[in-house]
Amino acid sequence: MKQGKKAGAKKGTWTNGKPPFPYYYDKNTRSVLVDETKRPIYRAIVEKYLNGTNLGHIAIWLTDNKIPTPYNIKPDEKNKGWSNITVQRLLASEIHLGYITYGKTRSKRGKVELVPEKERIKVMGTHEKLKTPEEHEVIMERLLKNRMLNPNSRRNIFPLSGLLYCQKCGSRMRFRVGENKKQGQHWSALCYHQYKDGSKCEQRGKVMDADFFNALYDRIIHVDPNILQEIELYGSRYNDTQVIIEVKEQELKKQKRALDKLHESYEEDMITKQVFLERKAVRSRQIQKLEEELKNLRKVVVDEGNYPTAEQIYERIGEFRELWSSSVTSEEKNRALKKLVERIVYNREGNRVELTVCYR
Description:
CATH topology of the largest domain: Hect, E3 ligase catalytic domain fold
Organism: Paenibacillus pini JCM 16418
Low-confidence stretches: 73-77, 148-156
Largest sheet: 3 strands, mixed
Shape: flat
Keywords: Coiled coil, DNA recombination, DNA-binding
CATH superfamily of the largest domain: Putative Large Serine Recombinase, Chain B, Domain 2
GO molecular function: DNA binding; DNA strand exchange activity
Coiled coil: 245-307
Protein name: Resolvase
Number of domains: 3
Distance between the termini: 57 Å
């Protein structure tokens, strides 16, 4: 049986049991196929990671959206959702590149050991590829960098994970765990951004103590008046744009009716062909211009319509306060923040730290 699997692997056929998400094994065709209901989920995972979302946030997103985990849950076990390591293994898998690998481990004197890569069977399989070599290279490079960080920094256990951004350079800030006799174990926010000329961002870090979080909480629940003014401005623009759209739509209908009448006049020999063509050209240009203007205005309406209203923000603040007060773990606090906050912009000048809250 082992020889049969080995021979099958050399031909590029699947011989390793259950294939990884989003593939499944079709017994009728004896081939590995893509589950079309899971394909977009897998691609979303890849694209989110390539766009900077970390493993923990992807795991939260999958769990929150009730995406079933790739592994089977026993009836008496509780499904705890996706984990960082599950997402990492999925991203690092070469199966999605199209490869079939056989013989990764072997049993020697009752112990299981890894087989050196050069001794394994690795061939291009017959199944569909779901990521490109370029995507895989970027993914592996980022995963390798993440391994160089402190393990606690990668567990998504910090409340501000994925939310804190540097005002000086715009990069997402990272967190470092430290320990001393006075404070014990503590976290610091740091900007590691490096510019193309090799210089580093001059942003200064800050220890995240109780005072920092009390100030942050206070800033979140008391909306900055400047933000409220900006929200009102967006609301006013939205209403103005809607009015302009209505005017443009009426003008477009008017021009189209005029063009229809022009065709009728020509068909009834009320005007010459030359006059018809000249007037038609003018009407057509006006119609095209109005349609382009309406297209752009509708895009603006979509963008402005997605901007939250003051009422929505205050409603979310109420929900946030309830979630935050009942949160015990850092991960629960992180989820509470993400229900309300898009990002928090950090800037330190001397001993003063300024935090700008951007609401969802």
